[in-house]
Write a structure and sequence with these properties.
single chain; 214 residues; mainly alpha; 6 helices; FMO-like; FAD/NAD-bd_sf; Flavin-containing monooxygenase
Length: 214
C-alpha cells in the first residue's frame, strides 16, 4: 500500500503484514497518510455548514466564498473565507464503475498527470499527426507479426512495465519498483486464474515463508 510521493510503502501500521491486509491495517494506513501528508490538520470533522455565500456578492470586495459553520456538538458559529467550495452531499455515493476486471490505481494516476501536463503545456507535448499515424501502423504491424487480434489493441500486457516506465519518465516520477512489479504480475496471474481464494492462499504462503525464515 502506498501513494506516490509518500514514504509509507513497506511499513506496517496495525500489525498486519499480509499482502492483502485486513480492514484495521487499511484504516491505520489511511490515518497515517492523513497525518504525515498534513491532510488531517486541515480537515474539521463533525462540523455542520450553515451557509455558503460568494465573497463578491457581499459587496465587501472579498473574493472566494464565505462559509459559516459550527461543530455538531453545538459549539460557537464561525465564519471563514475559502478560495473554492465543493458540495459533497452523497448524491453520487455509489460509484458508477463499468464492469471491467480491474482499476489499476497507479496507472490512472500516472496517466492523469501526463494528460494534465499535455493540456497545460508544461513539460509534455503530443507528437504530430503524421507521427501518431506512423506509430499506430507500426503497432498494428507488430501485433500482426505476434498473432494478436485487433480487439486487443489496447491490451498493454505483457509490455506494461515499459509502458508504466514511459509514463513515469513523462511526468518526472521514478520507475516502477521491482518489488511492486513482481507483486502486480503475480496478482494478475492469480486474478486471471479465476480463483476467488487467491488472496487467502497468498497470505498463507507469506505466513509459511515468514515462519520458515524466522
Amino acid at each position: 500500500m502506498a501513494f506516490s510521493g509518500c514514504g509509507l510503502a513497506g511499513r506496517v501500521f496495525a500489525g498486519d503484514r499480509h499482502m492483502f491486509p485486513g480492514h484495521q491495517e487499511m484504516l491505520a494506513f489511511l490515518d497515517a497518510f492523513a497525518d504525515e501528508s498534513g491532510i488531517a490538520e486541515r480537515v474539521r470533522l463533525h462540523a455542520e455548514v450553515l451557509r455558503v455565500v460568494p465573497g463578491l456578492g457581499l459587496g465587501q470586495g472579498e473574493e472566494g466564498w464565505k462559509v459559516t459553520w459550527r461543530r455538531e456538538d453545538g459549539g460557537e458559529v464561525a465564519e471563514e473565507v475559502f478560495d473554492a467550495v465543493v458540495v459533497c452531499n452523497g448524491h453520487h455515493m455509489v460509484p458508477l464503475l463499468p464492469r471491467i476486471q480491474e482499476h489499476p490505481f497507479q496507472t490512472y494516476e500516472l496517466q492523469s498527470k501526463w494528460v494534465a501536463r499535455v493540456l497545460s503545456g508544461r513539460g509534455a507535448a503530443l507528437p504530430s499527426e503524421e507521427d501518431m499515424l506512423a506509430s499506430v501502423q507500426e503497432h498494428y504491424r507488430e501485433m500482426e507479426e505476434a498473432g494478436k487480434a485487433k480487439r486487443r489493441t489496447h491490451v498493454v500486457m505483457p509490455e506494461w512495465v515499459g509502458y508504466m516506465n514511459w509514463l513515469a519518465d513523462q511526468v518526472g516520477e521514478p520507475h516502477l519498483e521491482p518489488r511492486r512489479r513482481d507483486v502486480y504480475e503475480k496478482a494478475l496471474m492469480c486474478v486471471f486464474s479465476v480463483d476467488e481464494g487467491y488472496r487467502d492462499k497468498w497470505n498463507k504462503e507469506e505466513d509459511e515463508k515468514n515462519h520458515t525464515t524466522s
